[in-house]
Amino acid sequence: MASFFSPQVSQIGGRDVELRAYNPVDIEVTYRDTSGLNSANQTILAEKIKLDLSSGYAEQILTGSVRFKIGNDTFLDRTGTLYRNVDPATNSGIASGVVQYGNGLIELDTWTPNIDNSVLLQSLTTTTDLPPVNKLSFRTPIIPIRPQSLTVVVSTLDFGQLTLIADENGAIETSRAHGKINYITGLIELFFYTKTEITATNRPEIEAKPWYDILLEYEEGGKQYINTPVWVDASSARYNAIAYTYIPLDAEILGLSATRLPLDGRVPIFRVGGMCVVSSSKEYVMLDHVAGKTYELADARISWCELEDSKGVKVPYDQYIVDYDYGKFTLSGDFAVNALTPPFTAKYRYQDMGLIRDVQISGQITFTKPVTHNYDTENTIVGSALVIDDMQARYTRKFVQQTWGNVWTDEASGGAISANYNDAIYPIQMTNKGAIQERWALVFTSGTGFKCVGEYSGEVGTGTVNEDFSPINPTTKVPYFVVKKEGWGAGWANSNVLRFNSISAMYPVWAIRTVKQSEPTQISDQFQIMLRGDIDRVV
């Protein structure tokens, strides 16, 4: 049996239609001729109340301008969140919904039941000049910021209020907001978008957006995505964070200049087991400048000494000799003033280096051995030392290959060749003064001749297997290396290559200088990097 219901309630006509059936069929017709019969009431519970405050107007709502009543309840917005019945005494209310500033839609999640559902709008301000943005960048006025203390609240035009919290690493990651904070500098960057998969269904809608550009699409996991902007009201953004402040340390209590210490007074550059250097810098004013005369300083066992004239110009090093053990210097026999301006001053420094046994937050550092000089607080500084260990120039990765394709790798390519260089008996000679950090290729141009090419230095010379090959380092005026003629075997042909790497007796050092915000105390400033080395004395 089948049923058919017609929605028509009047002027119902009829006609006879001949239908055929395989079996006898009973047809039952039910109708209602009075609308008052069979009526019923049903109560429906609404999950949300939705309103449109700007119906018919393409205008944006200003933050904090919404106020309306439903029954006896008064609603007002705070950064996109609607609060109900705010108490003027405590300024607190019940969070009841959201307002979308971009289109004026209201969504209420909670309200007082069984009240009049008429809406009375009391306040609303709209604008057509509010430029929506999807990126915010700002800096906190106080730094550093305590990790996990940042909270950012911002109103979106379509999704209500966003509350963002940074994690311990400074990352902010939600479905609609992505960003980070640098806790040290206080810089905050926020990007508002929703990662959207592009399908055949939604592509026309996405491409119709005014912000769409095909360059914004990207592929991930075999699917096409685009970051759909989430527009926010920049004027609604506010944040809360906790910043650290430190009381300046008294230099007299520490015995060290407070300007040399971190803001919090801790000294992380000094650690137990590390190396530390105590230095005292002094000056010796020369009353005369007699060629060949020896001048004695007030201190012995000095570590550094230089001569300067009255204008700060350095005296050439070949014009004097320094005796570091006895604290003396002697002007050369042909010493001449020339363009220098007397009187001259000897600036020197003596030092003690030791292993740190203990470090206190008060600034006290204890060595494993006593210092060997007298130090005054006025001219003395304490610094950590970067231990470089022993250094020696050498070569590694020697191999030969059939042809040279300008590809710098540390393994041979192509087929094997019979020719070779016997570095077991005739090693490639390297010196600390001449060697540099480089990858070298000796590319044969004939059966006996070759050219030398460096990965960074380029072509530095040509040679032959019949002579020692020693390309000159233009900086130090000594060879980069020496390849002995006796080491060459037979069988070399055009395009064959001898490859090896040279390791220099150098160490990478980064100098980081921090200048705090302050008024300049002098016109110019400078600093020196001192390298200390140990030697074996020959008695």
Please give a structural write-up.
By secondary structure, this protein is mainly β. The chain has 4 domains: 49-127, no CATH class; 135-240, no CATH class; 257-384; 388-517, no CATH class. 2% of the residues lie in helices and 34% in strands. It has 2 helices and 31 strands. The strands form 7 sheets. A 7-stranded antiparallel beta sheet has the order 1-7-6-5-4-3-8, with no helix packed on it. Strands 10, 13, 14, 15, 16 and 17 form a 6-stranded antiparallel beta sheet that branches. The model has no long low-confidence stretch (mean pLDDT 86).
In brief:
This protein has 539 residues and is an all-beta fold.
Write the layout of secondary structure elements.
Blueprint: E1 49-52, E2 60-61, E3 67-70, E4 73-78, E5 81-87, E6 92-99, E7 105-108, E8 119-123, E9 126-127, E10 135-139, E11 151-156, E12 161-165, E13 171-173, E14 177-181, E15 187-197, H1 203-207, E16 218-220, E17 223-229, E18 232-240, H2 251-254, E19 275-285, E20 294-296, E21 304-308, E22 320-323, E23 328-331, E24 345-359, E25 365-367, E26 380-384, E27 394-401, E28 438-444, E29 449-454, E30 458-464, E31 497-503
Antiparallel strand pairs: 1-7, 2-9, 3-4, 3-8, 4-5, 5-6, 6-7, 10-15, 11-12, 11-18, 13-14, 14-15, 15-17, 16-17, 19-24, 19-26, 20-23, 21-24, 22-23, 24-25, 27-31, 28-29, 28-31, 29-30
